[in-house]
Q: What sequence folds into this?
């Protein structure tokens, strides 16, 4: 199959700079596509693309992640491949690129998910340095809003949340992989885990294709939406899967799916969702 890379910055409110988001999505496509062109795996290409978004403060993942209720950043990330490899970290703190640690979990351990302190300890043992992902902007926001009442917090949560970033890649060896990362919901209870590290919830991959979902994790997990999209690929294309499954649920969310025929399905029922696609001869970025 021809190499293909799709990236997304999640469904959200566009409170952060959409022009800059477009630029970073373009850079994520370029960085991931270099890996594919050099013969790297779909998993590494997807991870590389997600790392570029994690490194930018305009997305809710890695640097720029939203704080939890006590002002700390807890992050979730995962990687899934069409060969059945999966690795995830949940509620990890003080690392720069959670998606890179998720890849290490899939590549270097017999486990699927490492959580909390254990995940951070694993990262340190693998040589990943201590890093504070809370930006000055998020520190300021926390200071200003930490005494808000629950109504105001709910408003903030709908403004700043649900912005999972993700990537799906196909490499020259017919492998398809998805990688996802999020800082979760602003002011969430410490220890809350989103849909991102839950196989079948916010991410899934099989020999039919790979899927990432973006939106409110609790509902996505209850409905196992990524798994549903994958099952739909049994007798539908990626385009049909995205278009039909988005209508099945009365919740705000987005679907990005790539099937084994290199078809791409993107659908969302929110005001905005940023995404980009790249092949050898084609590149498109939709920043909002
Ligand atoms: N999907 C991201 C979250 O629920 O935090």
A:
């Amino acid at each position: 199959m021809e190499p293909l890379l799709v990236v997304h910055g999640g469904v959200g409110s566009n409170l952060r700079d959409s022009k800059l988001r477009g630029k970073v999505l373009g850079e994520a496509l370029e960085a991931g596509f270099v890996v594919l062109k050099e013969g790297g795996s779909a998993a590494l290409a997807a991870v590389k693309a997600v790392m570029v978004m994690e490194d930018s403060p305009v997305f809710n993942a890695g640097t720029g992640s939203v704080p939890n209720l006590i002002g700390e950043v807890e992050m979730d990330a995962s990687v899934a491949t069409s060969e059945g490899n999966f690795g995830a970290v949940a509620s990890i703190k003080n690392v720069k690129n959670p998606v890179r640690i998720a890849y290490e979990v899939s590549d270097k351990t017999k486990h699927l998910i490492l959580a909390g302190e254990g995940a951070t300890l694993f990262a340190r043992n693998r040589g990943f340095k201590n890093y504070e992902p809370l930006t000055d902007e998020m520190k300021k926001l926390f200071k200003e809003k930490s005494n808000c009442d629950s109504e105001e917090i709910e408003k903030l949560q709908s403004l700043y949340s649900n912005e999972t970033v993700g990537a799906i890649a196909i490499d020259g060896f017919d492998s398809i992989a998805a990688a996802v990362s999020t800082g979760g919901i602003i002011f969430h209870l410490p220890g809350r885990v989103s849909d991102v590290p839950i196989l079948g919830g916010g991410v899934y991959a099989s020999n039919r294709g790979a899927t990432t979902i973006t939106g409110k994790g609790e509902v996505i997990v209850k409905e196992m939406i990524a798994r549903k999209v994958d099952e739909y690929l049994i007798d539908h294309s990626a385009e049909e899967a995205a278009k039909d499954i988005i209508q099945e649920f009365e919740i705000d969310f987005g679907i990005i799916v790539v099937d084994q025929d290199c078809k791409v399905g993107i659908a969302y029922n929110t005001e905005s969702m940023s995404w980009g696609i790249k092949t050898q001869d084609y590149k498109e970025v939709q920043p909002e």
Notes: The two ends are 29 Å apart (CA to CA). The CA atoms of residues 13 and 159 lie 5 Å apart.
